[in-house]
Write a structure and sequence with these properties.
This protein is of the alpha+beta class. It is 35% helix and 18% strand. It is built from 13 helices and 12 strands. The protein has helices at residues 26-41, 66-72, 91-105, 126-133, 142-147, 156-166, 171-190, 227-231, 262-268, 293-304, 322-331, 344-347, 354-369, and strands at 5-11, 15-16, 50-54, 82-85, 110-118, 201-202, 214-215, 251-260, 274-283, 313-316, 373-380, 384-392. Strand 11 and strand 12 (384-392) form a beta hairpin. Helix 1 packs across helix 2.
């Protein structure tokens, strides 16, 4: 079986809801990332055999196979097919897994895995809310209610509160982690660590107008964040531990990676950035749901024949602060290797775009630090988690 390599990785800087990317149609936003990948790989567009794109809110401007629409909004020829993937927050990480499996099998040689989410233009939960507006049913079916009779709905927020309680994480610990996320993102931005991974774009507001500026800095970073300010944010649930400050930020963004096998490397004439060392995906408890990265990582390390200490850098999505903190606590991982440039609490979480976004940041961080192995994982709606282990080359 062939190996899978990553030869290019790029992302937009995150845009806040109603912010500097809100005027971009999501297909055009993703199309800009596809173009950037072609530029970075200096690839003939006709060599791309497929585009697999993660997107959670597949409604409105993100409906009708947004991946194909992004291809048609890019420099790729009409002959390049595309498909859209929904594994909730792990959608573009799963797109990466599908792309890797395609080139490893030898059925394709050069595939782009990507993701996009315009949470300004297609608000979170849009597919479900549109169905309810039309008098149609909720995703929580009668058979699901029979299986989970005491659960009115699956809630990620409640899962985060359950994790904070189960792993005995205090509000102070969560607040301090949120501050660390902003501090690390600030340091990385000011040091220019994101420069090579970000695709600069003209600013477009929600009205489509621009001001001539370029968007190349993650808009959600609070450069003046303080512990006191974070501590004073209102609790989302009376008696709970989670606030908006310890949750990921709503975000507009797109990202992608180009995945190839040995034949693809030869056709492109490139040296790879990294080799995909291992892929895992699991299903877990859909009620606490956000806990899944823990057993997923344990399974991935076992199947890869590795220990947590073999991994040089970790990217664990900061959907809510209890997720990476519980992961650290259970795995016994080195906190200094986790989300070294900040995470979704500071940089934003563009849902379907986050998987390849995190991978892009992980690959560039490994290169900058001259490290070898990186591990990425994220919690996903319904109690799912993907794990990807890469080896920088």
């Amino acid at each position: 079986m062939s190996e899978a390599y990553i030869v290019a990785a790029a992302r937009t800087a995150g845009g806040r809801r109603g912010g500097r990317l809100s005027g971009w149609h999501p297909a055009d936003l993703a199309g800009q990332v596809l173009n950037a990948l072609l530029d970075r790989a200096d690839a003939d567009p006709a060599l791309i055999e497929d585009v697999i794109m993660g997107c959670v809110g597949q409604a409105g401007e993100q409906s009708n196979n947004v991946a194909r629409n992004a291809v048609l909004a890019s420099r790729l020829p009409e002959s390049v097919p595309a498909t859209s993937v929904d594994r909730q927050c792990g959608s573009s990480q799963q797109a990466l897994h599908f792309a890797a499996q395609a080139v490893m099998s030898g059925t394709q040689d050069i595939v782009i895995a990507a993701g996009v989410e315009s949470m300004s233009r297609v608000p979170m939960g849009s597919p479900s809310s549109l169905a309810r507006q039309q008098g149609l049913g909720h995703y929580f079916s009668p058979a699901m209610k029979e299986r989970y009779p005491d659960i009115p709905d699956f809630s990620q927020f409640m899962g985060a509160e359950m994790m904070a309680e189960k792993y005995d994480l205090t509000k102070d610990e969560l607040d301090r982690f949120a501050l660390l996320s902003h501090e690390r993102a600030k340091r990385a931005t000011e040091a220019g660590d994101f420069k090579d991974e970000i695709v600069p774009l003209p600013v477009r507001g929600i009205d489509g107008a621009g001001d001539g500026e370029t968007h190349d800095v993650d808009e959600g970073i609070r450069f003046d964040a303080t512990l006191e300010g974070i501590q004073n944010v209102k609790l989302l649930k009376e008696g709970g531990r989670i606030t908006a400050a310890t949750a990921s930020q709503i975000c507009d963004g797109a990202s992608g990676v180009m995945v190839v096998n040995e034949r693809g490397l030869k056709a492109l004439g490139l040296e790879p950035m990294a080799r995909i060392h291992h892929l895992t995906v699991i299903g877990h408890d859909p009620v606490i749901m956000l806990e899944a990265p823990i057993p997923a990582t344990e399974r991935a390390l076992k199947k890869a024949g590795m220990s947590i200490d073999d991994i040089d850098l970790f990217e664990v999505n900061e959907a809510f602060a209890p997720v990476p903190l519980a992961w650290l606590k259970t795995l016994g991982a080195d906190a200094d290797r986790l989300n070294v440039n900040g995470g979704a609490i500071s940089l934003g979480h563009p849902l379907g775009g986050s998987g390849t976004k995190l991978m892009t940041t992980l690959l560039h961080a490994l290169k900058k630090r001259n490290k070898r192995y990186g591990l990425q994982t994220m919690c996903e709606g319904g109690g799912l988690a993907n794990v990807t282990i890469v080896e920088r080359l």
